[in-house]
Amino acid sequence: MRAFKIEEVLKKRWGGLVLVVEEVKNPHNISAILRTADAAGLQHVCIIDPLGEGFHVNEAISTGAEKWLTVEKHYSAKLCFESLREKGFRIAATALEGAPTPIYQYDFTRRVAVVLGNEKRGVRKSTLEMADDRIIIPMRGMVQSLNVSVAAGIILFEAMRQRLASGLKDPLPEEEVEELLRRWK
Ligand code: SAM
User: Which one of 9, 22, 114, 183 has the fewest beta carbons within 10 angstroms of its own beta carbon?
Assistant: First the structure.
């Protein structure tokens, strides 16, 4: 049963949708983001951690999602983006200002890495400048922004909606699936 579930999950993982998390500090937020990434069918999450602080997961919130994800740590956004660009990804950074594209008009059927920012500061200015695109979840209330883990959910599930609606087949490479199967079983 477990082996069957693992195979089914791996078949549905997206090869071309990655989440990048820049300096999100609160363990509750990181945990909820990892749980959401797994639920939306992502395999790869990159953590940008310039101070080498690591990240702390609260298992009650992540429900162990981190075990099923490939989490890569990078010391800088520059190194992270270089590695993603080598694999053909566009970089879409979340931004609240600077005429970002509403997520409902953004094309998530391409190979896209979505960048989320720090709870207080948002995505660093220098990181925004290195990104290809800027995206926003349109807001119509009094508050300026959403909690970062809520934003992760809205963006990743919009990306999944678009990908399913377009009939996109974007699996992980076969060798990676085999490697994950060996690790998970
Ligand atoms: N003052 C910060 C700013 O200007 O970015 C607010 C940071 S917000 C609390 C933390 C993160 O949540 C943001 O960096 C972004 O990744 C995500 N976020 C929050 N609201 C968002 C929105 N409406 N659209 C896209 N991302 C959002």
Answer: 183
